[in-house]
Write a structure and sequence with these properties.
The protein is of the alpha/beta class and about 240 residues long. It has a single domain, classed as Rossmann fold, CATH 3.40.50. Helix content is about 30%, strand content about 30%. Strand 11 and strand 12 form a beta hairpin. The longest helix has 16 residues.
Length: about 240
């Protein structure tokens, strides 16, 4: 079976006047359907740039990016936007929820970009997902009425509502206390166990080790591709098999 993602010698440069800054310097790897992969690196290592390329938010300067067997590095902006809305679910460190909009409407926002979306079915699905993550009683609340952990759970549901092929999580526990962070990682592990493909960007070793595989990136280069023993977080902060 072909990999879901194949990155081949991707490079990314940024130009400021006559100055060229090389952020990615020839990155190559594959990710299969149903994997849970952490991309781990320090600030400035290139991990966020790589995530933006994977999520169709940016284009590489050179190299190839195959998603579902299609070389998406050659698609125009409109087609990339279409792919992004249909194929990718995003989870951000800062939640990116609309503060004057209810939790339910925040979750439903990605469905508004889909053609021929059944609004009633989408709402039923969103409510069921919110109940699953313990937010069934919060659907009409505004984000500022929720804790950080609750806001991130709402963001996870928003990422799931279109049933994407890939979930991208950018520092998903970065703004949370340890207990809330553990709860979020348990949800992501459960989703992966059900077959969801997840790529998570993090600078924290503790968080990265919740994945099944870690790509270490430094100075725009993948320095290590590590398979980790699958470990599951217990609510006391310890790992369990």
């Amino acid at each position: 079976m072909s990999p879901l993602i194949k990155i081949n010698n991707i490079k990314k440069d940024y130009h400021t006047g006559d100055v060229v800054t090389s952020v990615l310097k020839g990155v190559s790897f594959e990710i299969g359907e149903g994997e849970f992969v952490a991309i781990m690196g320090a600030s400035g290592s290139g991990k966020s740039t790589l995530m933006h390329l994977i999520g169709f938010l940016d284009k590489p300067t050179s190299g190839e990016y195959f998603f579902e067997g299609l070389d998406v590095s050659k698609l125009d902006d409109d087609k990339l936007a279409e792919f992004r809305s249909e194929k990718i679910g995003f989870i951000f460190q800062s939640y990116n929820l609309l503060q004057r909009t209810s939790v339910l409407d925040n979750v439903l926002l990605p469905t508004t970009y889909l053609a021929n979306c059944d609004a009633k079915k989408a709402e039923e699905k969103a409510i069921n997902l919110l109940k699953r993550v313990g937010l069934g009683h919060r659907i009409n609340h505004k984000p500022n009425q929720l804790s950080g952990g609750e806001q991130q759970r709402a963001a996870i549901v928003r990422a799931l509502v279109n049933d994407p092929r890939l979930i991208l999580a950018d520092e998903p526990t970065g703004n949370l206390d340890s207990k809330s962070g553990e709860e979020i990682m348990e949800i992501l592990q459960d989703l992966n166990k059900e077959g969801k493909t997840i790529i998570m960007v993090t600078h924290e070793k503790y968080t990265a080790e919740c994945a099944r595989r870690i790509l270490h990136i430094k100075d725009g280069i993948i320095t290590q591709d590590e398979i980790v023993n699958h470990r599951r977080l217990a609510m006391n902060g310890e790992y369990k098999k």
